[in-house]
Amino acid sequence: MRCGAWWRFAGRLMERLVTRVKHLGLRLRSSVRPGVVTLLYHKVTSTRPGSFGLAVSAPHFFEHMEVLHKIGCAVDLAGLVQDTRHNLPRRRGVVVTFDDGYADNYLVAKPILSRFGIPATVFVASGFLDQKRECWSDELESLLLLPGRLPRRLAWIVHGREQAGDLSDCAEYSYELCDRYRGWTVRSDTVPTSRHKVFRQLFEQLRTAPHVERVTVLNDLWRQAGRSPIPRESHRFLRRAELAKLAEGGLIEIGAHSVTHCSLGSLPVSQQRHEIRQCKLTLEEIVGHPVTSMSYPFGSSGVDYDVRTVSEVKAAGFACACVGTPGTMRSQMPRFEIPRDVVLDWDGDEFEKHLRWWFIR
User: Burial, 198: exposed, middle or buried (Cβ in 10 Å; 0-12, 13-18, 19+)?
Assistant: First the structure.
């Protein structure tokens, strides 16, 4: 063997050894401090992460599942709940979940999950199935943060109050500006333009608004812009037939995520009850078996759900519910407030670093 070839062979051997040691280290950490990490995904797509930073590219998602497969720690949500009921948390485990019900969960994510045999739960907002329009938040992004011209001033009414946003310095939004601020998300510390300021203002106001009011506001904003929304195929939701196929085979569990993806804690109990129970009934009709898990939209305690919400979820017959705040599930933790960690568009190495930290925190 020539010298150059030998060094390349030795380099590849060393790389494999380092990878195995890293995975072994992760196994040891998780066994020393037992607990289950629940991952929160939304979209698995080829498009950019977007203004919410919640889209993971298909290649990166493949790397994430490859990591879970190699360390052998993927578990299903139903198994976690069963162990919790008997006060027997697993020594280590990772649960994969998705919120909202985007079509790419079936078209892109399921084939990858199937390849590695990794179970997952997809929480679906039943009112968005077969919907022609995008989710209100995606539509808001399309209106304000994609290239195009808008009036210098936008006005709207939300929660019974007149609101306005000044776009005078950024009424024309160029492709150059759009590309420059491509990495900005609604959680960023900075607000680079007036468009981003109005976007954040509208997002926070519509977040707790009833669905009908969200649609009314968006329709009025599109009217002021002088155009109609054009749904993007990359942002569409599942069709009912796709949801049924997503549930086939038993690898993917379907969970409820309300009817209209509303902040449940901001609604009267009667409306919360409808959002929770109607979602469950619709999903069960499509998949043909009981839906026993729930995810609170947005998922912040005291804001997006409260004790009334938890009571309604229990009364509806659910076995568990997930929240949107981080944490590791350990013994005697409530199964109607299962913490989850949001996964961003990291490569496999970065994902493994976060996983390592989540196990030992």
Answer: buried
CA 176 vs CA 46, 47, 147, 166, 172: distances in Å: 21, 18, 9, 21, 11
Given a contact cutoff of 8 angstroms between Cβ atoms, the answer to whether 45 and 58 are in contact is yes
Q: Coil, strand, or helix at residue 331?
A: coil
Rounded distance between C-alpha atoms, residue 259 and residue 11, angstroms: 53
In the chain, what's the furthest Cα-to-Cα distance?
78
| Beta strands, E only, the chain | 35-41, 43-45, 55-57, 92-100, 120-124, 148-149, 153-158, 161-166, 172-173, 252-256, 293-295, 320-322, 328-329, 341-342
Determine the Cα–Cα distance for residues 247 and 103; give it in Å rounded to an integer: 13
Helix ranges (DSSP H) in 226-306: 240-247, 269-287
Across-strand partners of 293? 320
In the DSSP assignment, the letter for residue 236 is P
Q: Environment class of residue 131 by beta-carbon count within 10 Å: exposed (0-12), middle (13-18) or buried (19+)?
A: middle
Exposed e or buried b for every residue in 237-248, given b needs 16+ CB within 10 A? Answer: bbeeebbeebbe
CB proximity list for 107: less than 8 A, separation 6 or greater: 242
Residue type, 314: K
- Distance from C-alpha of 260 to C-alpha of 329, rounded to nearest angstrom: 28
Residue in the block written with tokens 């305690």? 301
**10 Å Cβ neighbour count for 208?**
17
Mean pLDDT for each 10-residue chunk of the chain (361 residues)?
58 56 51 78 82 88 97 91 68 92 97 98 97 93 95 95 94 93 88 95 94 96 95 94 97 98 95 98 98 96 95 98 93 87 96 93 81
Q: At a CB cut-off of 8 Å and minimum separation 6, what does 217 contact?
A: 156, 157, 158, 202, 206, 209
- Residue 85, Cβ density class (10 Å: 0-12 exposed, 13-18 middle, ≥19 buried): exposed
For 110, phi and psi rounded to 5 degrees? -60, -45
Look up tokens 């900005």; give the residue.
184
Q: How far is CA 50 from CA 13, 139, 146, in A?
A: 38, 12, 10
